[in-house]
Request: fold
Amino acid sequence: MAEKHFKYVILGGGVAAGYAARDFAKEGVKPGELAVISKEAVAPYERPALSKAYLFPEGAARLPGFHVCVGSGGERLLPEWYTEKGIELILSTEIVKADLASKTLTAATGATFKYDVLVIATGSTVIRLSDFGVQGADAKSIFYLREIDDADKLIETIKAKKDGKAVIVGGGYIGLELGAVMKINNFDVTMVYPEPWCMPRLFTAEIAAFYEGYYARKGINIIKGTVAVGFDTHADGEVKAVKLKDGRVLDADIVVVGVGGRPLTTLFKGQVQEEKGGIKTDAFFKTSVPDVYAIGDVATFPLKLYNEMRRVEHVDHARKSAEQAVKAIKANEQGKSIDVYDYLPYFYSRSFDLSWQFYGDNVGDTVIFGDSDPASPKPKFGSYWIKEGKVVGAFLEGGTPDENKAIAKVAKIQPPVQSVDELAKEGLTFASKI
Reply:
C-alpha cells in the first residue's frame, strides 16, 4: 500500500481539527501540503449541535448546516471547500499506531502517512457504563452521544419508541441537554445522578436549585444521590428497566448516558509528556516532541490568567487553541514570534428556553443575584465568584449579548470587591460599570 507524505497532518475530525484546517488555509497553505485524517465519515462539524438542535422533533439541524466554522459565525467548510483549498480530507480512516520518532501514522487498513508537522486534535471519547462493569450495560437502546452516528441511531430509536420512557444517566452538560431534548420529543423523562445537585463541577447548590426546579416544572423526574448498577432487558435484548443502587427500578424504553469523557491520548502514551490527563503543551500548543502540537480536549496547557496548567474540554477552547497552534507553526517557519495563549475559560449551555454563560474560574465565595425563581415567566439571574477580594468568575442565565460581554469582562479584569452584600444588590449593574 502506497505511503502518503504531507507537510502537515491534522489528526482528528472534530471542532479543533476543522478550525485548524481553516486557519492553515488562512495562513496560505499550498495545495497538497495538508491532510486531515478522521475516523468519522463526514467532514468536521460543530459537535455541540448533537445534543441540542440535531435531536429536535421539528426544525432539526442537519448537515451540511453545521459544518465548521459556522458555530463561531464563520464560513461553513463543506467537503468541497477542502478540495478547493487543496487540503486532503481523509475520512473513515482510523489511525491505530502513531510513531512520533519516525513521523509515521498507520491506519487500521495498513495505510501509512508520513508528516513533517503533526497537529493532534483527537478530542475525547465517552466514558461508558461498561467501563465500570455495570451489568447489562451492552443492552440495545442504551445510547452515548459523541459522534453524528450516535445521534442518528438515537433519532431512529426516538421515532420507534414514540412517547415512551427515557432515563438519562448523568447530571452534567449532556445529561441536562438530553433531558430537555427527550422531553421536547414527548418522552416521560427521569434523570439519575449520584451528586447532591446537577452540574456540580460548575454550579453552586443555589444555581443548580433553579435548573432542577425548572426541569421539575417541565415534568422531568430527578433522582439524586444514586447510580445505575444494572439493566433488565426484553427477550430481544432491548432495555426495559434501569436498576439503581438505592434499590429502585425505573422502566425505560431508551437510556441515554452522559457520565463524562476522557481525552484520546492512547496513541501517544510513552512518547509525549503528559499532565493532568492530557498531553502537556506550552503556550503555543507545542508538545515535548519537536514538530508535534496538541489542541482542544487533549491539551494540558499553561493558563496565563491563573498561572497554572489546565486541560479544558469545551468548543470555545477547541476553536481558539487551533488558531493559536497554526499561527505558532507558521510563525516558527518564518522565524517570527507570536503572543502566548491568553485564554479566558468560557462555558455555555442551552436547553428549553434557557441559556446560560459562564466566564472565568469557579473558586472562592459566591454571591447570587437576580430572579432565580424557576416559576418566573422570564427568569434572569447570575452569580459571581470572589477570591482574595476580587471577582474571578461570573455566571449569567438569560443574559443579552451585551450583558454576557459585561460578565466576560469582569472575569477577565478581576475587579476588587469592597462589600459582598453590595455586590449582591448591584448584580448585573456591577458588571456593566466595569
